[in-house]
From TrEMBL:
<comment type="function">
    <text>May have a role in the cell cycle.</text>
</comment>
<protein>
    <recommendedName>
        <fullName>Enhancer of rudimentary homolog</fullName>
    </recommendedName>
</protein>
<dbReference type="InterPro" id="IPR035912">
    <property type="entry name" value="EHR_sf"/>
</dbReference>
<keyword id="KW-0131">Cell cycle</keyword>
<comment type="similarity">
    <text>Belongs to the E(R) family.</text>
</comment>
<dbReference type="InterPro" id="IPR000781">
    <property type="entry name" value="ERH"/>
</dbReference>
<dbReference type="Pfam" id="PF01133">
    <property type="entry name" value="ER"/>
</dbReference>
């Protein structure tokens, strides 16, 4: 359970920057998924059920101008920065666990 700050800049304009904080890395990764799901809902307001696969989520992450995390490191009392690739890896692990495939190697 490491406090995690999610930094998001969807567009080129720096004024689009926002941040959210979470109690753990997993909660933060769930937050990234929710951001994408809200994006899909806005684009498809009349669709009652929205589904997507991980490659579509990763494409969304890649098209954001900036997405990064700051994760609290208790040992040094500092926050360590992580980039989009790290975020995608953590999302992949989270979704794999959620799907019940924790004992498979992908």
């Amino acid at each position: 359970m490491a406090h995690t700050i999610l930094l998001v800049q969807p567009g080129a304009n720096p004024e689009t920057r926002t941040y959210s904080d979470y109690e753990s890395v997993n909660e933060c990764m769930e937050g990234v998924c929710r951001i994408y799901e809200e994006h899909l809902k806005r684009r498809n307001p009349n669709t009652p059920t929205i589904t997507y696969d991980i490659s579509q989520l990763f494409d969304f992450v890649d098209q954001l101008s900036d997405l990064s995390c700051l994760v609290y490191q208790k040992s040094t009392n500092t926050y360590a920065p992580y980039n989009k690739d790290w975020i995608k890896e953590k999302i992949y692990i989270l979704l794999r666990q959620a799907a019940g495939h924790t004992d498979y190697n992908f």
